[in-house]
Write a structure and sequence with these properties.
homodimer; 135 residues; alpha+beta; Arc Repressor Mutant, subunit A; Dna Ligase, domain 1; three-stranded antiparallel β-sheet; three-stranded mixed β-sheet; 40% helix; globular; DNA-binding
Chain lengths: 135, 135
Amino acid sequence: MATPKTYLTQQHKAILAFVSEQSSCFTAAELSDALRAAGEKVGLATIYRQLEKLEKSGMLQRIATEEGACWQRCDQDDHDCFLLKCEQCGRISHVDCLQLAPLYDHLSSSHHFAINPRRTMLYGVCGSCGEASHA
Amino acid sequence: MATPKTYLTQQHKAILAFVSEQSSCFTAAELSDALRAAGEKVGLATIYRQLEKLEKSGMLQRIATEEGACWQRCDQDDHDCFLLKCEQCGRISHVDCLQLAPLYDHLSSSHHFAINPRRTMLYGVCGSCGEASHA
DNA sequence: TTGCGTGCAAAGGTTTTGCATGGCA
DNA sequence: TGCCATGCAAAACCTTTGCACGCAA
């Protein structure tokens, strides 16, 4: 169970620095762009390999979306967090809310399904887009 | 608002026949295989184009998953339907349950988010896999 | 010095697109 | 006959992988 031997390379540190600042999820391309903008040169292959490691270590969770994969941090106190993606503007927001607990309980007790909110992205229409279409 | 002129081609009918039989969602590859098995020759490009049309017409909903896209039928009476995908066995099942209504209401009233269950896939661990890992 | 991590380039899979042809109405 | 739909092949796109080299420990 020991953490596999890991080298603290320049690239690893740069990626970790970016990830630590993210409050929502991000794509591999966004990470790549941010690193380039910061003057860090990290190849895409390395980015994918590091993201894979961070996912295996439990720090990140990979999520499938319409446009490709994105990753979000797994914070230990985020048990009641869901991602909401607007079908219209594409923005992703968080819901961190105890009201969702009944949903977990119901799925678990009645449908024998243990939901994993970290991997789940809810689709719908956000407030701004909803108002816009009403107007 | 009239339905765009559509030709009832052999391929269109074959795809429609397959889609009508599906109770859960399916991938483009599954559709292609099924058509081949049925002796229908339909190119992949046509399959994707037909699926796109069926989605625009409101008959199908496209869903992004880890392994690629899949499509499911939009039945008018499926308001309370969610898709559950097991992270372990990969199987996709349905929940069609009024108990989920409070979730919709809460997201709508407190978070101004109108969820679209048809496009949403919940990830977690299904009953069989949960039991297996407990054993 | 050891061997993990990296970069590059090539390969992989899925989905889209261009263009000439086919077939429904 | 008109024109949408199709097939094929090529392209686009994201992601993974092979291999030689670099670098942390």
